[in-house]
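Throughout this chapter, every protein is written as a compact record of paired, labelled lines. An example of such a record is reproduced below:
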Amino acid sequence: MICEELRLGAVCRPATTQEPRWQASDGSGMLYIAECNLGRGVFAKRAIRKGETILAFGGALIDFAETKRRGPRECMAIQVGPDLYIDTQPPGVFANHSCAPNAGIRNDRDLVALRDIPKGEEIRYDYSTTMDEKSFTMACRCGAPECRQVVTDFTELPGGLQDYYLSRGLVMGFIARRLRRAGTISRWETVGARLAMPAPCPGG
């Protein structure tokens, strides 16, 4: 299932669950939507500094059953809890995946720059940092040298990559809490800055 191809025709759509709802933000004019090799993507309208908040994902909150009713479009919702998803709206719905991302999600909805992003570069994050459902997978065409070929749950990532994301707060809170309860925290709590940052994806 290639979620990115669906983004070419992505539209705002009503959700079954209308409340509560998280308001989306567009990064105060720092973004634009344009065609890319995966359909449509989010691009930097100006240079973005490392650590800057790029956008906040928003939309109605829906459950797992509702995502499955969407069929191929289930991939457009972002998981924020064991049975809770954001029915993402523009501009966030157009943010594509990369196995070597230049952005990541903090605080469960804020997309932040992981490095300096020049004007005109596509902004991508690693979808697996939001996934813990043992259901959805997606073929990957990000083009990074370290492309994993398939996008799947966070716990299926290589251990070193899990460490990298967890130590920097780039994993959904519900996933980090589950791993902490399972005793996994001791493996990544102290790695911090010792880990090398993944190489950026060429061209975005």
